[in-house]
Queue: 2 jobs
Job 1
Amino acid sequence: MEDEVLSLHDRLMNWLLTPLFLLWLFSTVAGYVATLNYASQPYDRALLERAQSLAAQMKLGSGRERLDVTPTLPAGGAPGEQDRMYYSVSNEEGRMLVGNADLARPISYRGGKTGPLFSNTEHGGEKTRMVSLVYPGPPGSPSFQLHMSETTHQRQASIRGIFANIVIPQLLLIVIAVGAVWYALKQGLEPLERLRQDVTLRHRDDLSRLDETQAPAEVRPLINAVNDLLERLKQVMLAQQRFVADAAHQLRTPFAGLKTQTELALRETEPERKQYALQQILTSAKRGNHLVNQLLALARNEPGGQGAETFAPLDLNRLAQECTVNWVPMALEKGMDLGFEGISQVAPLRGDAASLTEMLGNLIDNAIRYTQAGGQVTVSVDYEHGGAVLRVVDNGPGIAPPHRERVFERFYRVLGSGQSGSGIGLAIVAEVAKRHGATITLNAGPHDKGTLVTIRFPHHGT
Ligand SMILES: Nc1ncnc2c1ncn2[C@@H]1O[C@H](COP(=O)(O)OP(=O)(O)O)[C@@H](O)[C@H]1O
Ligand SMILES: [Mg+2]
């Protein structure tokens, strides 16, 4: 991962160092060219003077040439010594007349000019620098050429010296610049590094805010966003913890009951009383089973459970009718009238059929459970303002206004109903409605009697 994503530090280093390096390369090349030009000038001049003085000794171009002069030239060779020198005098055909090496070569008379001509040559496998002079002589007499060359050791040594004097300080400058940039970046990014350490060294459930006051202004919005996220995470974690604690507490009661009842049943010897005790155990087990199912239903419909991806088109009218039919036996058992009032057309809805069945089941269960024997419960489906509406109404004792908000909370029960329960039913209803974007209202029924729960689904687009 680290090879793919360059760190901010490396990225900035690259952006700063690449131009710096190119600049250095350019100045080095320019420095080298300049050195080459200026360093060779005095050597060329000395070479020319020597050639001219030899020509003067030989009286070249006077018509009375004396070619028997033997010049004293440095032998050269050893390092640090003078460069080795060669010369030759030739006639205009390029035939060597005298000299210590045949350097004769045709000279291009640039526009008839006979000034000194410098050229880079080679002699005996060594680089040499040569100057060529032309002496036309008086009319009628032959003309002469003088070539003189020298090896370039001294020139190269002096170029190297000058060049080193230019390049080394520049190199030093670059090194200092790189160091300064690197250090400045490290200093500048220090707050981020501290932040990183702060986060890595945290205890795994420490969700406290990150300190944004130490961070550079550029990263502060990011830190604020992370802090917001941490805050939300903290809320969710607290809710989870509370839920687990509540659920455990709720489960403890049926399990403790089961234990006591089982101990009792084991102790009974009379078959009839044993039978009764076993019946009690079954009731407790059913209650515990119901509670676990309710908890699972709640968890399934909570935010963070499955989302809207399980939604499918369905007909609320049919779903509600089928669900109501399933509760008829329980209503009959209590001598109650459970009715359904649907609409003639379909009530299209996108939703999760299993969750909606769960929701409706809880509403009908409550209506039957809390309404006196012989009472009346009606489930109805309507279509209002383009959205499906589900209602469950009973003529029972109703829920007093102070409790109407709170009954939707988890584990909240109104005491004194004489019915067993866990207080999760309406919490499930609330979560399912929320998942479907529906709104719930809880009112008294007709004539201010009983309970009316209304669930309005959002406008169905298609
Ligand atoms: N139709 C109803 N009539 C009267 N009281 C009701 C009705 N529905 C719910 N309640 C009250 O709201 C409380 C919460 O209901 P619920 O969340 O389903 O939990 P549970 O039914 O397990 O007690 C119930 O304890 C009951 O007091
Ligand atoms: Mg209930």
Job 2
Amino acid sequence: MYYDAHCHYISLRGKKYDEFIIAAVSMDYDSSLSTVSLKNEKILVGVGIHPWNVHNENLDRVLELTEKADFIGEVGLDYRYAKADKESQIKYFQAFVDRAIEEDKLVNVHALDAWRDSFNILTRSGVKRAIFHWYTGPEDLLKDIEGAGYYITINPSVSFQQKHLRVLEKAPLEIILTESDGGYEYRGKMLEPTDIPIALKIISKVKAVEEEELKRIIERNFKNAFGGD
Ligand SMILES: [Zn+2]
């Protein structure tokens, strides 16, 4: 089995991925509603409002869906591309963080150019389980992420994105998960779970660990992250 810790599954239009356990994230109310209906033994479902949608989505109607979800996400802060101001983004993120604590759920976080602020909100609020997806943040924050018991995901773009590769070199295997960010188009290519074996090959090489052993480590990390204690 392969593990995809962050995938926009509904954007892949019903494609089947038999060898994958997928954490399906949402962006807004409509995608949250569709995503929760996909829940099965191989698809974990998340609901949330992506920071890019904070300016045009109602918070309360999405919060109403969290009890049907396995985890919260995709939520977070984006100081580069989001249309909403910082204050509104923080208000939404904090509401989902509080809900994750109430329901003892993992938070699947987008934190572009807002890595430290997002981390501080999670730790100050007392979140136990969180994933920083497609981590390209500061290398010194990796120690704190490890200390807090949180995780980062490595995306197949590690094959060409230098910043992401440097993160992989620095991050301990204990905090690494794999993701596709499937359903998202990046540099003209539609990302898919089937890209994950490419990421595994690179992680295996960079970390000098056999692929089979690496798959076991990632499975364990995934189960710890999503499954609780
Ligand atoms: Zn995403």
